[in-house]
Write a structure and sequence with these properties.
The chain is of the alpha+beta class and 485 residues long. It folds into three domains: 247 residues, FAD/NAD(P)-binding domain, CATH 3.50.50; 85 residues, Alpha-Beta Plaits (2-Layer Sandwich); 75 residues, Glutaredoxin, CATH 3.40.30.120. Helices cover 32% and strands 23% of the residues. It is built from twelve helices and 24 strands. Strands 1, 2, 6, 7, 8, 9, 16 and 17 form an eight-stranded mixed β-sheet that branches. It has a four-stranded antiparallel β-sheet with strand order 12-13-11-14, with helices on one face. Strands 22-21-23-24 form a four-stranded mixed β-sheet, with helices on one face. Helix 1 runs parallel beside helix 4 and helix 8 packs antiparallel against helix 9. The radius of gyration is 24 Å and the shape is globular. It starts with 12 loop residues before the first strand and ends in a 5-residue tail after the last helix. The relative contact order is 0.14. It comes from Actinomadura physcomitrii. This is Rifampin monooxygenase. GO terms for molecular function: FAD binding; oxidoreductase activity, acting on paired donors, with incorporation or reduction of molecular oxygen, NAD(P)H as one donor, and incorporation of one atom of oxygen. Keywords: FAD, Flavoprotein, Monooxygenase, Oxidoreductase.
Length: 485
């Protein structure tokens, strides 16, 4: 694929995205919905050779449904109850969670990456593999991106979706304060030499006190093995089979006869949050902006939700209709969400500790989660359906996402596939007027809402509630810019 190089101040692309994981691929697709010229650069020449199962939580499934992707995910993944997330405390899913997609989906990471990358390419995004960003310079008109080998590209905006060791973040000089890893865990998939019933019995015994330990079958005679490491080491070096054997014997008294590893890795509990999500024309998304322990399975999901929040706003800026402050709301909304995720993972890691105080606290919280309100609060926190952005004073629904309603014209989320705003009007009296090129209007007097009208942003969050046309126009201007001529 031939690429245009820098020629004067001309920009070859509207947006260059560094990193083609789920976050980068999804952001590219969101931008392409609005006709933005997008190039995605991926450092690795080939996808990761190992197959790690990742979990998609309720809010991420809702967002995928909004773009018509959910059925494709369900065909390739496995549904599981929305339960047992918080500190791996085994409690059933709360009853009547406020979502039409109140479950989680386990799916191999290479599968979700390929699905989202194919989706972005289908919409017109370009993807280049084996391209590492090594430098950047920005001015008031755009960003010059330098690649390994010396190639230089010109773009209006650069977005770093390049993970915890983000090169883009480092080149920007953005601080990444927080705590380094204090604990490390080995993870891999391999064969074992004991019968399944013996493994299950021993694992259940060990997990009474050690919550960072499991051996679970993943199919074809292969097991997922997770065991605490002896200390913190260089995470760029994968653990060996001997490392697993030693740690299994130390923790469980047996190495279970593990052999023939398919892949191995290690993860720590470092917790860090970028000081800024945006410097000029360069932005950070996903793990480039925040890292935390994997307990609760929130990492990929927070990145996906970042991408949905940013995509339409950056597209609006490029298309020329964004209000002056719209792009600033990306950091204002998403950084506090990440800070809360960091806090809940810190709490969960403490509850994983084996000391007597932590074990007593875990027993107490386990009792408290028998109360539906407590269990519901924690599940809504982990799955992000409890997120409420600060849009000012108003009803509790303001700033929250709206569930997938059954409307006279079909499902609500099916009406959001194009990434546009939506006025859902139960009065039949309101209009979107000069914003019809950016916002759809649906009059449905039978909609199951206890408010007269809502304005939905492209990410499904409620930006306004009311029944007054002038008030609606004011909020359309706030979120979608000036009306067309």
């Amino acid at each position: 694929m031939h690429l245009q190089l820098v020629t004067g101040s001309r920009t070859a692309y509207d947006v260059v995205i560094a990193g083609c994981g789920p976050t980068g691929a999804l952001l590219a697709a969101e931008l392409r919905l609005h006709g933005v010229r997008v190039l995605v650069l991926e450092r690795e020449s080939e996808p990761a050779p190992f197959v790690r199962i990742v979990g998609l939580h309720i809010r991420s499934l809702e967002l995928l449904a909004m773009r018509g992707l959910l059925e494709r995910v369900l065909e390739r993944g496995r549904r599981r109850p929305a339960a047992g997330f918080f500190a791996a405390i085994s409690k059933p899913a709360p009853k009547d969670l406020d979502s039409a997609h109140a479950y989680m989906v386990g799916i191999p990471q290479p599968v979700i990456v390929r699905l989202l990358e194919d989706h972005a390419i289908h919409l017109g995004a370009q993807v280049r593999r084996g391209c590492a960003v090594t430098g950047l310079e920005q001015d008031d008109k755009g960003v010059t991106v330098e690649l390994a080998g010396g190639e230089r590209l010109r773009t209006r905006y650069l977005v770093g979706c390049d993970g915890a060791r983000s090169t883009v973040r480092k080149l920007l000089g953005v601080g990444f304060p927080g705590e380094p890893s204090r604990n490390e865990t080995l993870m891999g998939e391999m064969q074992v030499g004991l019968p399944q019933n013996e493994i299950a019995a021993r694992v259940a015994e060990i997990q009474e006190t050690e919550k960072r330990f499991w051996i679970r079958p993943v199919g074809e005679g292969t097991y997922s093995v997770v065991v605490p490491a002896a200390g913190v080491s260089d995470r760029t070096e994968p653990p060996t089979l001997d490392d697993f054997q030693q740690r299994l014997r130390a923790v469980a008294g047996t190495d279970f006869g593990v052999h023939s590893p398919r892949w191995t890795s290690r993860f720590g509990d470092a917790t860090r949050l970028a000081e800024h999500y945006r410097i000029g024309r360069v932005l950070l998304v996903g793990d480039a902006a925040h890292i935390h322990p994997p307990t609760g399975g929130q990492g990929l999901n927070v990145g996906v939700q970042d991408a949905f929040n940013l995509g339409w706003k950056l597209a609006a800026r490029i298309r020329g209709w964004a209000p002056d402050t719209l792009l600033d709301t990306y950091e204002a909304e998403r950084r506090p969400v990440a800070a809360e995720v960091l806090d809940n993972t810190r709490a969960q890691m403490e509850l994983h500790s084996t000391g007597p105080g932590a074990r007593a606290l875990r027993r107490l919280l386990t009792e408290l989660m028998d109360f539906d309100e407590v269990n519901r609060h924690l599940i809504e926190k982990i799955t992000a359906i409890g997120v409420r952005y600060d849009f000012g004073e108003g009803p509790d629904l303001l700033g929250r996402r709206l569930r997938d309603l059954d409307l006279a014209q079909g499902r609500l989320y099916d009406l959001l596939h194009r990434g546009r705003g939506l006025v859902l009007d139960r009065t039949g009296r309101l209009a979107a007027g000069g914003w019809s090129d950016r916002v759809d209007l649906l009059a449905d007097t039978t909609a199951a809402l206890d408010v007269p009208c809502v304005l939905l942003r492209p990410d499904g969050h409620v930006a306004w509630i009311g029944d007054d046309q002038q008030d609606l126009d004011d909020h359309l201007s706030r979120w979608f810019g000036a009306p067309a001529g």
